Amino acid sequence: MYQEKIINPPSGYLTFALFLALLGAAVFCFVTESFIWGGCLLAFNFFLVLPGLIINNPNESKVLTLFGKYVGTVKTDGFFWVNPLTSKRKVSLRANNLNGQQLKVNDKLGNPIEIAAVVVWKVNETAKAIFSVENYMQYVNIQSEAAVRHLANIFPYDHAEGEETSITLKDGAEKVSELLENELNERLSRAGIEVLEARISHLAYAPEIASAMLQRQQATAVIAARKLIVEGAVGMVEMALEKLSQKGIVELDEERKAAMVSNLLVVLCGDRHVQPVVNTGTLYN
């Protein structure tokens, strides 16, 4: 596997000055009818001097190869002169955003879900990016999709019934993003790519089970709310019986206590307005 070799070529300003001087000398030769010398100067100027001049912009690099052999990479920005016979390939070192497409996969529990991720990446080693893979941008796209699929297969979308400790795609956003970033860095290191950030951008149940899962979530919410209401109602009934007993307002036997508890629980736990029935007889009629 190729290792990146950074080179610092000489400045191109002196070479450009030489180019202008040789161009002036060639013109002078043509004026003085020294056509052979003028032609040689022009050929040397345009075939050996000018092709070696390169401009490297900030956050860009030039990968140089000479007759199929890797020479080195220029990462410093500026104006330089390199061997004119080398082939020069520009590789951007800027950060890139990959907005992955929505994938339909199965989670750990076998539920079909839709998932997509946003990946921020950049080229870290130009030699690997150019020589180790055919097309490093396509390589990033395919490996990112494979990593997202693998991540979706090892975690459930949401907590299973009775399970609260495992990591889920829905609630474990930070941990899932960290695992995705680590896996992408491992997969893309072959191409000299560094992943700066990776996050889940879209997560939902597939349309065919979305309505069923919505009903399940609603039922879970209703059960949780009912549980809280019952706990509060029991506390209020207990407090009412205790206050009645402490202040001696009324003495209730066990049967009437049970009836009172039942009535209070119906009133406090019911989801509709209660219609009271007034008993004008005795306590036992």
Automatic annotation (TrEMBL):
The chain crosses the membrane at residues 12-30, 36-55. It is a single-pass membrane protein. It comes from the Bacteria. It is found in: Membrane. SMART domains: PHB (SM00244). Residues 51-217 form the Band domain. Keywords: Membrane, Transmembrane, Transmembrane helix. Pfam families: Band_7. PANTHER family: BAND 7 DOMAIN-CONTAINING PROTEIN (PTHR43446:SF1), MEMBRANE PROTEIN-RELATED (PTHR43446). This is SPFH domain-containing protein. It comes from Pedobacter jamesrossensis.
